[in-house]
Design brief:
169 residues, alpha+beta, 5-stranded mixed sheet, 7 strands
């Protein structure tokens, strides 16, 4: 384990991401594909929810952000499934001796309606993160037609996580 971590058994991280919507692209959110006329534009699959979650987890361990570990300038990440990035981030915190306590995400989008997809997202993320589904909370909101999300130009997501020092056996 790295010596730069304090002895505190709990750490909190916050992440935020935004991606532009573009017609004809697939829409990936929370690790699942959602049928919609527009998808998110990005170097990877642009799963804004997973990107915010990765940044929160990395932030909890003071390991930077996903751009540091998976730079958009690196062609090996072009079009990559963000679930792969999340799995690598989880392995990084396990190497530092930490596990997920819980994660809370909020996705802001005018359309499509996300409520019917939340349980599938939670299940997908809990499987990747090797935790129980009740350790993952996902909420969807609109911005009441205000700003870029309200104009349906993009989707944003924020995430907060609690990680804890795993008992060494």
């Amino acid at each position: 384990m790295s010596k730069h971590f304090s002895e505190c058994p709990f750490r909190i991280g916050y992440g935020y991401d935004v991606h532009q919507l573009e017609e004809g692209l697939p829409l990936w959110l929370g690790g699942i594909k959602i049928t919609h006329t527009h998808g998110l534009k990005g170097h990877s699959d642009a799963d804004v929810a997973i990107h915010a979650l990765c940044d929160a987890i990395l932030g909890a361990c003071a390991l930077g952000d996903i751009g540091k570990h998976f730079p958009p300038s690196d062609e090996k990440y072009k079009g990559i499934d963000s679930k792969i990035l999340l799995k690598e981030v989880i392995m990084m915190i396990h190497q530092e001796g930490y596990k997920i306590g819980n994660a809370d995400l909020t996705i802001a989008a005018e359309k499509p309606k996300l409520l019917p997809h939340i349980d599938n997202m939670r299940e997908c993320l809990s499987n990747i993160m090797d935790c129980l589904i009740d350790q993952i909370s996902i909420k969807a909101t609109t911005t009441e037609k205000l700003g870029f999300t309200g104009r349906e130009e993009g989707i944003s997501a924020s995430a907060i996580v609690l990680i804890y020092k795993a008992n060494e056996d």
